[in-house]
Write a structure and sequence with these properties.
The chain has a single domain, classed as Transcriptional coactivator/pterin dehydratase (Gyrase A, domain 2, 2-Layer Sandwich). It contains 3 helices and 4 strands, in the order αββαββα. The longest helix has 18 residues. It is globular, with a radius of gyration of 13 Å. Belongs to the pterin-4-alpha-carbinolamine dehydratase family.
């Protein structure tokens, strides 16, 4: 799988940011109305992730969800991450998330 330039990827994903950690990735922080909405979002994404066999790194505290996408096998961001980010953006909008 071809590794993509993070700066170029982010041009098409305005809600996402470059991961500031020790490896290339993209991340997004989301805020929902409450825990149920956050968990519902995570469930929707988890079902998709399992279907496409590409799983996010994420954390959840009450109504907040932080998501990191990277393709470990490629050592950075690939089209799989871009596709998952697009799905996450759609799911977040449907669940009423705030940036």
């Amino acid at each position: 799988m071809e590794r993509l330039d993070v700066a170029e990827v982010l041009k098409g994903l305005p809600a996402w940011h470059a991961h500031a950690g020790d490896r290339p990735g993209i991340e997004r922080k989301l805020v929902f109305a409450d825990f149920n909405a956050a968990f519902g979002f995570m469930t929707r994404v988890a079902l998709r992730a399992d279907k496409v066999d590409h799983h996010p790194e994420w954390s959840n505290v009450y109504n907040r969800v932080e998501v990191l996408l990277t393709t470990h096998d490629a050592g950075g961001v690939t089209q799989r991450d871009v596709d998952m980010a697009g799905f996450i953006d759609e799911a977040a909008a449907a669940m009423g998330a705030k940036a």
